[in-house]
């Protein structure tokens, strides 16, 4: 010791994190949280798909060692010009995989949208990195691989999805064997009360006009169809080791109660906070500790009411598809997810009506012969075939329209 025999003051090393999908809604909120938490966190990897300018701004502020640009169309020289000389550049899905395996990454925030996030999520768990998971699609597609792998490697999957963060927190009030059911809340989206015929013909702008949350466009459309809740039912089964009949959904338009756990004695434990993803993101980053939050806080100085109602099964056929998918297991989740991603992209491109999203997914599921295969290649093949089948349905519909 050089300072007269005194121990140096204790300083915690920063937790080093990789943010996959840093330019998205969850990615930018994660960086807001990291900024708020200060020197306890260091960003070593940022990954973007197309938004180079935003990535460059993030690089200038957070100084990562590595950036990943996944869009193969982006020119390497343009990327270097945008981000400057500092960080190494990795490319494509393989670049995300290599980035999460690095020794200077301890925690991976998976905030890519869609099944495109799966390879890096698997690689993170394989490499033993703590996983803060927003990319629910990877659990829907490959929960049968991801969850056992996490168990084997002693990796903690920390849910970022607000409902699952709420359940995760409420679960601490009892034992898994004492859980009667998990109750996921759903805002009901913009079409909760819209006449059904009008809802089927809703425009993109209508569907993107979510009443309580500001999110990326794919999940916003999913919230309007309730495929988001469908994915979340399957996500909950995997994350909390529950059979589908123990996962219920209730519509709660204010999005303040983020979900609940009902225990066998009749007690229901809920987690409440205003709709702001910074709260569950921060919990995943600081877990098992809690730190002063930067998300919105409940204002109890004014009166407010909370409402709950059962979901309308006719309006939201996605929910029944989710239970059917969760029961069937095998490659059913991969098929549901791929069909939905394809249908949402077609709706956003103006190729199908809003009401046809559920039709395309249902018909793709019906046309698929379930295989029990659990190998990754089987699931990726099911994903590929479902995209082809859903695209053909969309094409045929275009021809007959
Ligand atoms: P966004 O569309 O806002 O962001 C998606 C991010 O992924 C962007 O950084 C985008 O890059 C990148 N990306 C897009 N396509 C690819 C690809 N093929 N390969 C690699 N990266 C890609 O989505 P959200 O932030 O809303 O959602 C991200 C995930 O989090 C989803 O799984 C969603 O379900 C989940 N989630 C989101 C919530 C929210 O409030 N937004 C709440 C709960 C869960 P770029 O922008 O540079 O093109
Ligand atoms: Mg959610």
Question: What does this protein look like?
Answer:
This protein is α/β, with parallel strands linked by helices. It is 46% helix and 14% strand. The chain has helices spanning 25-37, 52-62, 76-83, 92-100, 118-126, 136-152, 162-171, 196-200, 204-207, 217-225, 227-240, 278-286, 318-328, 332-348, 356-367, 376-400, and strands at 15-20, 41-48, 66-69, 88-91, 107-110, 130-133, 157-159, 179-186, 247-251, 257-263, 268-272. It has a 7-stranded parallel β-sheet, with helices on both faces. The protein has a 4-stranded mixed β-sheet with strand order 9-8-10-11, covered by helices on one side. α14 (332-348) runs antiparallel to α15 (356-367). The mean pLDDT is 95. The protein binds NADPH dihydro-nicotinamide-adenine-dinucleotide phosphate and magnesium ion (MG). Magnesium ion binds next to α7.
């Amino acid at each position: 010791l050089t300072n007269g025999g005194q121990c140096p003051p204790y300083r915690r090393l920063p937790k080093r994190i990789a943010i996959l999908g840093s330019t998205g809604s969850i990615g930018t909120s994660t960086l807001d949280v990291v900024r708020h938490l200060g020197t306890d966190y260091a960003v070593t990897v940022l990954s973007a798909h197309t938004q180079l300018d935003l990535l460059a701004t993030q690089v200038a502020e957070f100084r990562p060692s590595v950036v990943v640009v996944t869009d193969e169309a982006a020119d390497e020289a343009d990327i270097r010009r945008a981000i400057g000389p500092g960080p190494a550049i990795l490319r494509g899905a393989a670049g995300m995989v290599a980035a999460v395996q690095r020794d200077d990454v301890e925690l991976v925030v998976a905030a890519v949208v869609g099944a495109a996030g799966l390879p890096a999520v698997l690689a993170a768990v394989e490499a033993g990195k703590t996983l803060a998971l927003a990319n629910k699609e990877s659990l829907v597609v490959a929960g049968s691989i991801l969850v056992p792998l996490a168990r084997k490697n002693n990796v903690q999957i920390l849910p970022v999805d607000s409902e699952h963060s709420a359940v995760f927190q409420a679960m601490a009030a009892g034992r898994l064997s004492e859980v009667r059911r998990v109750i996921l809340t759903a805002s009901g989206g913009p079409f909760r009360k819209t006449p059904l015929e009008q809802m089927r013909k809703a425009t993109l702008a209508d569907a993107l006009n979510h009443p309580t949350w500001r999110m990326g466009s794919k999940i916003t459309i999913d919230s309007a169809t309730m495929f988001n809740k469908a994915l979340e039912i399957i996500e909950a089964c995997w994350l909390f080791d529950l059979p589908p009949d123990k996962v219920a959904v209730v519509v709660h338009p204010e999005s303040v109660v983020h979900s609940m756990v009902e225990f066998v004695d009749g007690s229901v434990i809920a987690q409440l906070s205003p709709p702001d993803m910074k709260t569950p993101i921060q919990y995943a980053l600081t877990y098992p500790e809690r730190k002063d939050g930067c998300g919105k806080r409940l204002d109890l100085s004014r009166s407010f009411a909370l409402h709950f109602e059962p979901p309308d099964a006719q309006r939201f056929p996605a929910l029944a598809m989710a239970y059917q998918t969760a029961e069937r297991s095998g490659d059913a989740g991969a098929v549901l997810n791929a069909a939905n991603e394809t249908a949402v992209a077609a709706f956003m491109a103006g190729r199908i009506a809003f009401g046809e999203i559920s039709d395309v997914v249902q018909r793709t599921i019906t046309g698929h012969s379930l295989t029990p295969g659990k190998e990754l290649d089987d699931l990726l093949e099911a994903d590929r075939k479902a995209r082809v089948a859903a695209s053909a349905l969309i094409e045929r519909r275009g021809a007959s329209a």
